[in-house]
Amino acid sequence: MSDDLVTIITPATEFEANVLAIVLKDNGIEAFVFATPTIGIGVPLSGGTSGVPLQVARDDVERAKQILHENKRHSIDIDWEELSPEGSDEPYRPSMMHRFFKVLAIVVAIWMVGSFLVSIVVSIVNFVFAL
Known about the structure:
This protein is mainly alpha-helical and 131 residues long.
């Protein structure tokens, strides 16, 4: 049995991916959901990936696709019009944030920390000379 994981479908939400993983697990196929951490307003921190990949072992791909296709007519939890069960034969590799945005995030973080430190120093100086 191959240990490589293959993405068979990428639902828009973690809920949908987990529902499909449960369907596969109920049919004897080990399925894995790799959710993307998000900040409070639902913006993914993955740097550009969209959707939540549902993966199975390479040897189970065809059977998993068949099970999902058969489950489609019984499902009320998933909007199947939004999904395309195509997937890829390549192992999942999340896309990385572009270098520009990484540098921009670092610059903004340094600016914020620097501003905070300057305000503390100014407050201390004002306090000392106010006495």
